[in-house]
Specification:
Layout: H1 2-50, H2 57-78, H3 87-112, H4 119-123, H5 126-134, H6 136-144
Length: 145
């Protein structure tokens, strides 16, 4: 009887760990899908500015606000602790996030020096990196199913 009680207790304890891992994976998947969708919308916004020959003062203010928002989103996502099953995916996204942060730093430097123009988005590859982040939607779906 005692052995049976120990076995049942062990199964309950390990079962809770599995349930926690599943819950963490689902939660991570939702956060990642939301993040990727947010980055996709920013990519669309950045693309609108790539077609301009010159920026107005309002454009520059809007761009500064947008890249501050992007930077906040990227840093917040990088702080998420992924479940073990998604650690590789999270590392890949973090690598792209680092590229976005580097491009944001350079864009801010250029704007502060008055040297920012539409080609900066292409040269800094902000739009390209944001577009690459969109590709992770399918990978997240694979982990969720």
């Amino acid at each position: 009887m005692r052995l049976l009680l120990i076995a049942v207790s062990f199964l309950l304890i390990t079962g809770c760990g599995v349930i926690d891992e599943v819950n963490q994976t689902v939660d991570y998947g939702k956060k990642t899908k939301d993040y990727v969708s947010t980055m996709a919308s920013y990519q669309d916004d950045v693309s609108n500015y790539m077609n301009k020959d010159q920026f107005t003062e309002q454009d520059l203010e809007d761009i500064k606000a947008m890249i501050e928002e992007i930077e906040t989103e990227v840093k917040a996502f990088n702080e998420i602790e992924p479940p073990s099953v998604a650690s590789g995916l999270h590392s890949e996204i973090e690598r792209h996030n680092d590229q976005v942060l580097e491009a944001i730093d350079e864009a801010n430097r250029q704007m502060n020096q008055g040297q920012f123009d539409a080609s900066a988005f292409e040269e800094l590859e902000i739009a390209k990196t944001l577009a690459e982040l969109k590709s992770y939607r399918d990978k997240v779906d694979e982990y969720m199913n």
